[in-house]
Amino acid sequence: MRLLLPRLAALIMLAGICLAEDAVAMRARLVAALDADPLIDAKVKAFAKDKLVPLTADAVLVREAKAQNAKKVPLADIKKLDQEWTAAEAELPIQKEKMSNAAAEAIRGIAKGLSPLREIFAMDDQGANVGQNNLTSDFWQGDEDKWQKSFAGGKGGVDVGKAKFDKSANTTQQQVSLPLIDADGTVVGAITFGVSIDAL
Predict the structure, then answer these.
(1) Please, what are the domains in the chain?
(2) Less CB within 10 Å around the terminal CB: N or C of the chain?
(3) pTM of the model
C-alpha cells in the first residue's frame, strides 16, 4: 500500500499535466484556425492571436459560465427570456444583471485594458448571455454562428464575422468569437469580441 500511494500520486499529477496540455493544444488549434480564416483582417488576426486567445481561459469568465451552466436552465425558458429581451422597451432586471454581474465587471476590465475592443459578451453552453459590456440586441445566441462555431458542440472553434462599418461607433468592426476553456480543457461557453479595425 505504501508503495502504491506514491505511484498513484504520480499518476494523478501526470493526468493533470496531460489535461493542462489539452487546454494548451486547444489554444494552439484556435491560433491555427485564425491563421487559416480568409475573412479575418490581417491586423485583427494578429491582435486575436496575441490578445484574445489567452482570454479564452480568463478565470472569472470561465467560473461564471460554469456557474450558469450548473443551473441547467431549460432551453425553452432561455428562448422565452430572449423574446422578452428583444421586445423590451425599458431595461429588464435580467438585462441589468447581465450588465453588472461579475462576468460583466471582468469584461469591462478587459475592454478598458484593450482599447480596440468595442463590445464583448460571454455565453454559456447553450448560447445564453452570461455577461457583457454593451447591451446586446438579444439574450440567446444559440442560433447564431458566433456561438455555434465557437462552442462547436463542446469541441471549441473560431467564428469570424465580416468586417462592418458601425455608424454609431464611427468605426469598422469585426467580430471574433472563441470558446471559453476551463483549465482541464473543457469548453464551458464562448465569448465574442467586437474589434475596431480602425483602432488597431
Answers:
(1) 4-196 (3.30.450.20)
(2) N
(3) 0.88
Residue the block writes with cell 448560447: 127
Tens place of pLDDT per residue across the chain (200 aa): 454 444 444 443 444 444 445 888 999 999 999 999 988 999 999 999 999 999 999 999 999 999 999 999 999 999 999 999 999 999 999 999 999 999 999 999 999 999 999 999 999 999 999 999 999 999 999 999 999 999 999 999 999 999 998 776 678 999 999 999 999 999 999 999 999 999 99
